[in-house]
Amino acid sequence: MDSDRPTKLEFAVQMTCESCGEKVRAALEGKPGVRSVSVDVGKEEVLVESALTSSEVQALIESTGYRAVLKGIGGLEQDLGAAVAMLSGAGSIQGVVRFLQLSEELCLIDGTVDGLEPGPHGLHVHALGDLTQDCLSCGEHFNPFNKQHGGPADSERHVGDLGNVVAGPDGRASFRLEDAQVKVWDVIGRSLVVDAGEDDLGRGSHPLSKQTGNSGERLACGIIARSAGLFQNPKKICACDGVTLWEERDRPIAGEGRSKANPDMPSAHL
Ligand code: ZN
Fold it and tell me: Can you give the pTM of this predicted structure?
């Protein structure tokens, strides 16, 4: 289901003066869904407590003209781990989906996928983190309890069944879900897949309904990897590792244009 549970988002924002900080603060404070804002110009850091998706908060910050990079995401009281999946696939489809375990029971799933046909698209955690044959090698929906396919609110469902996300006329699906079956520690190393069509949540007449929701071909996928929680990302806005956070942001999140070389890797010196 959609979540209105607040989370903390940590952004790096390129601010060079106190008044820039005030501008960023003004763009956020009092906006619907924003609970608190803390700006540290010296550290170029903005901490936002909100029930908005991370891309919505980023858009508010960037409405000032400053650029923002999400560095971490955390729960208000605790979080038990975080993960991220960078999706890529057919055509220009790209997405970033974050998983944050807020408690033993509850996982918050915050994501944005661009380049989709407008309308609903099935979203599922698949069993395998294997992209050797693109999304075809991701295996079936993650189903450790050997259940039938269902919707996220059903008790009879695959753990990986997250239902549908809906792309708007601009092709963007931006969502923030909470789920009581997905656990960050169970899905790290598996994959997340967005499908071409609508998941019928196991309620259709098609033979595939109880297996996959008959949501069509797999459009885009990515491996779910452990990610930084709040204040755990040591990456600074500098050229110390050869790539600044800002350059990183302007690259495609996957595919061509991604640098494979890392000058810090020992193999580069062989
Ligand atoms: Zn399923």
Answer: 0.81
